[in-house]
């Protein structure tokens, strides 16, 4: 029969190893700030944070006009969209395309030819009112949510693939040039005018909203919690020794941290995390991301359940075969089980049965599964909260102002499926931020969902950097 003592031992160990008390988070925040400074000091200055110069030094003004396109590549799907600015009530037109596994793990040119083909398909459906003027091309904001070394607003080299992509031959190449060339091969009259990542797009959309609301709130940070995770923020150019160009008139530059690369011996990692990392496409890398992003949370939970099956025979005398299948349990399953409000935990029972092939579970067992989900999600959410506080500290917005200077509220713009669709995760993350900042300071930090930066935000930045205006 099941060995509940052993199960309780495994669970107790998990609780202890995943614990994230405030003093631990404070030490992580300090580590993070040091790494941020090191990454800003010189190229490669931090082994953790790339602190990428985005070449975006101003955010949208709200005066953008015309039709612009965006291509959002950064996860399991890519999207193409057209946005018309300056026309009230016009809604963006979208098309979502999934990326076949063989393309994600395939060859460089195949990937870009595939994308160019889908873009061509999209514009072939447009009527003539959207055709560009003679001598002009359609302008595209390219959201490329992988670490790149940007060299201007419309060029940048891939540093490395993340999030399950392992396309051969792209690392070190200019992804804008690759896409422009593929579009030319297709005879498509489109050109990339802005290369951004989803965090920068999110910042753009949120800034536009804040400027329209006119409440003086300052959008300084954006964080994506989706398949992967990253953050960007508005840094003072004087705090970026590695910037060698002219000083932008705004005095600022948006920095994409690539915060998923953070790693520290202080991070609360377990044997499950280590095993997951070891079989990932990028072992030893993106350690922070592997603790908290949507691509991984489900599989961490699966690994805990597998150990409970193997060592405590919790799901019967033999190990349910589905528990051995990597990634069979997704983060949406985790959030669904964690947030099951029915008294008999029906959703938990349904997912255990439908997804893992574990039928007829007792309420006691379902409760234990919920607790596993809760421990893994809470650790993730609190680490994300610590990451936000790290940025707030770096830009001096982690304390109250006693010098009488204007105290605008700081907006942290959030996006990504994990944040959007997992209310308990959001609540834990915000609670951690309040705990670390104190309630008085936290009142001036607004953590807000800001949707579709990777789409509309990219089109906005393409408009802001139009070659024809
Ligand atoms: P991407 O990061 O690929 O651009 P999204 O921002 O939409 O895309 O995030 C998708 C991720 O969000 C998925 O990988 C999944 O892990 C997570 N997610 C989606 N739905 C939920 C949900 N209901 N609960 C928790 N996480 C979810
Ligand atoms: Mg995304």
UniProtKB/TrEMBL annotation:
Segments forming domain Hexokinase C-terminal: 221-463
Enzyme superclass (EC): transferase
Keywords, alphabetical: ATP-binding, Glycolysis, Kinase, Nucleotide-binding, Transferase
Enzyme Commission identifier(s): 2.7.1.-
Highest taxon in the source lineage: Eukaryota
Pathway as given in its UniProt record: Carbohydrate degradation; glycolysis; D-glyceraldehyde 3-phosphate and glycerone phosphate from D-glucose: step 1/4; Carbohydrate metabolism; hexose metabolism
Gene Ontology MF, one: fructokinase activity
Parent-protein start and end of this portion: 89 to 557 of 561
Location of the Hexokinase N-terminal domain: 11-205
GO CC annotation, single: mitochondrion
Organism listed in the record: Ceratopteris richardii
Listed GO biological process terms: glucose metabolic process; glycolytic process; intracellular glucose homeostasis
Membrane spanning residue stretches: none
Family: Belongs to the hexokinase family.
Catalytic activity field: a D-hexose + ATP = a D-hexose 6-phosphate + ADP + H(+); D-fructose + ATP = D-fructose 6-phosphate + ADP + H(+)
Keyword Nucleotide-binding carried by entry: yes
The UniProt record lists the keyword Kinase: yes
Protein name stated in the entry: Phosphotransferase
């Amino acid at each position: 029969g099941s060995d509940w003592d052993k199960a309780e031992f495994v669970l107790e160990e998990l609780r202890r190893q995943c614990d994230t008390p405030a003093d631990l988070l404070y030490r992580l925040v300090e580590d993070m700030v040091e790494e941020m400074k090191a990454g800003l000091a010189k190229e490669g200055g931090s082994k953790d944070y790339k602190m990428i110069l985005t070449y975006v030094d101003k955010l949208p003004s709200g005066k953008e006009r015309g039709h612009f396109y965006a291509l959002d590549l950064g996860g399991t799907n890519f999207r193409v969209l057209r946005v018309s600015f300056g026309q009230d009530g016009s809604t963006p037109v979208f098309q979502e395309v999934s990326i076949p596994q063989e393309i994600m793990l395939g060859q460089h040119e195949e990937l870009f030819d595939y994308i160019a083909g889908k873009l061509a398909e999209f514009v072939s459906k447009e009527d003539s009112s959207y055709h560009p003027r003679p001598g002009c091309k359609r302008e595209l904001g390219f959201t490329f949510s992988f670490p790149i070394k940007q060299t201007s607003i419309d060029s940048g080299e891939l540093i490395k693939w993340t999030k399950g992509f392992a396309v051969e031959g792209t690392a070190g190449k200019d992804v804008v040039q690759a896409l422009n060339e593929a579009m030319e091969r297709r005879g498509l009259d489109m050109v990339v005018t802005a290369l951004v990542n989803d965090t920068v797009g999110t910042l753009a959309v949120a800034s536009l909203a804040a400027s329209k609301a006119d409440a003086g709130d300052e959008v300084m940070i954006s964080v994506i919690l989706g398949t992967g995770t990253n953050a960007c923020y508005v840094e003072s150019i004087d705090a970026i020794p590695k910037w060698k160009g002219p000083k932008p008139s705004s005095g600022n530059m948006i920095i994409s941290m690539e915060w998923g690369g953070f790693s520290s011996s202080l991070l609360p990692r377990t044997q499950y995390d280590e095993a997951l990392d070891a079989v990932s496409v990028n072992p030893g890398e993106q350690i922070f991301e592997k603790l908290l992003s949507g691509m991984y949370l489900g599989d961490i939970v699966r690994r805990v359940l597998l150990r409970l099956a193997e060592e405590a025979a919790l799901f019967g005398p033999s190990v349910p075969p589905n528990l051995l299948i990597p990634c069979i349990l997704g983060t949406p399953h985790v959030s669904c089980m964690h947030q099951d409000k029915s008294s008999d935990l029906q959703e938990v029972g349904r997912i255990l049965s439908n997804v893992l092939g574990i039928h007829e579970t007792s309420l006691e067992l379902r409760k234990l599964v919920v607790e596993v989900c809760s421990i893994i999600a809470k650790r993730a959410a609190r680490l994300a909260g610590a990451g936000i506080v790290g940025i707030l500290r770096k830009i001096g917005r982690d304390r109250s102002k006693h010098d009488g200077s204007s105290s605008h509220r700081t907006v942290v713009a959030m996006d990504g499926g994990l944040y959007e669709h997992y209310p308990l995760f959001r609540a834990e993350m915000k609670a951690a931020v309040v705990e670390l900042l104190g309630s008085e300071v936290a009142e001036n930090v607004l953590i807000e969902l800001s949707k579709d930066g990777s789409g509309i935000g990219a089109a906005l930045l393409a408009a802001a950097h139009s070659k024809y205006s």
